Amino acid sequence: MSVRFCEPEVVNNNRKNTVQLLVHGVTETKLYWSGLSYPTGINGDTYSWIAYASRQGYPTLAIDRIGNGNSTHPDPVLVTQMNLEEAVLHQLVLKLKSGAGHSIFCTARAKTSQLGQAVPGRTFSRVVFVGHSYGSILGNMMATTHPTDIAAYILTGYGVSVIPVAAGLPQTVPFPAALYSATRFAGFALGYLATSSQIGRRNYLWGADGSYDQAVFLRDFTGEDVVGVGEILSITAGLKAAPAYAGPVAVITGERDEVFCLGGFCGTGPQSPQAQSCSFFPKSPNCTYNIPLGTGHMIDLHYSAQQSFKYAHDFLAQNGF
């Protein structure tokens, strides 16, 4: 598994042993968390969750999920499924909290490493899970399956129903990545798919006109990664109530998120998918939600990104993190 661990620019003794585990969605990589590039994102730090967290004193660990980015690409149908990915994350969290096994190190603007370089003495007392889209559903599954692993969840681009997911996905025209772009995805098994329709990806993942920079959208489209067929088929395994999880949860899903809201109109009240998400965490002492207006599925890449980052980190501070 390829990962990037960054120590914060600002030292905060109350946060130095609380790591944010950043888990991206489908057709993205860990670059999603740093503004689609590294060490400096597109338009500087405007769209970088990592940079914002760094200035608040939080270490971050951004991963390429199995089957994405620089991580291994096993069988996309039989292996890259939600159950396996959740099990891998569970083991990673245990290592982060115990200090055993493997870890990696980089500064906020230095280098990236493969999991496997030991960093003596680095142990984390708390892990905050920050997910986006499929990554958030993996977080949901962790809360259900291993309810004591994570101290707090921030689930972005998240909802509790797969009906909108299934309804909107075909417009992106998923196509075998190796056939869609033989140069970028040479050697990939045909079960790894890319979204081949620029208009479809725009309508499915991006918000209202004027809510994002067209150049950022084009950077995302031309630099997209893949999704395994097994991930699509196993997604419902993660959307279940987590009755034993007893930590705080924040949900951030855009008002125009077509992935989790039919027709791309989520609403803003207690009947919105964002508000209904809290029903999955009945023991949470503080489950809250935020709905950035006009914003689509790609929370970190809209003009509202900085407001979303602030909401998430204010939530952590308010809950003692």
Number of helices: 10
**What is the end-to-end distance?**
27 Å
Query: Strand arrangement, largest sheet?
Result: 4-1-3-2-5-6-10-11
The outline comes out as: globular
- Helical amount among residues, as a percent range? 25-40%
State the low-pLDDT regions, or none.
Answer: 101-120
Beta content comes to: 5-15%
List the secondary-structure elements in sequence, H or E.
Answer: EEHEHEEHEHEHEHHEHEHEH
Radius of gyration: 18 Å
Residue-averaged pLDDT: 92
Question: Which structural class fits the helix and strand makeup?
Answer: alpha/beta
Total number of beta strands: 11
Largest sheet: 8 strands, mixed
Question: Would you give an account of this structure?
Answer:
The protein is of the alpha/beta class and 321 residues long. It has ten helices and eleven strands. The strands form two sheets. An eight-stranded mixed sheet has the order 4-1-3-2-5-6-10-11, sandwiched between helices. Strands 7-8-9 form a three-stranded antiparallel sheet. Strand 5, helix 3 and strand 6 form a beta-alpha-beta unit. The chain is globular and about 50 Å long. About 6% of the residues have low confidence.
What's the layout of helices and strands?
Blueprint: E1 2-6, E2 18-23, H1 49-55, E3 60-63, H2 82-98, E4 113-114, E5 126-132, H3 134-145, E6 152-156, H4 163-168, E7 174-176, H5 177-180, E8 192-195, H6 198-205, H7 214-222, E9 227-228, H8 229-234, E10 249-252, H9 273-276, E11 287-290, H10 305-318
Parallel strand pairs: 2-3, 2-5, 5-6, 6-10, 10-11
Antiparallel strand pairs: 1-3, 1-4, 7-8, 8-9
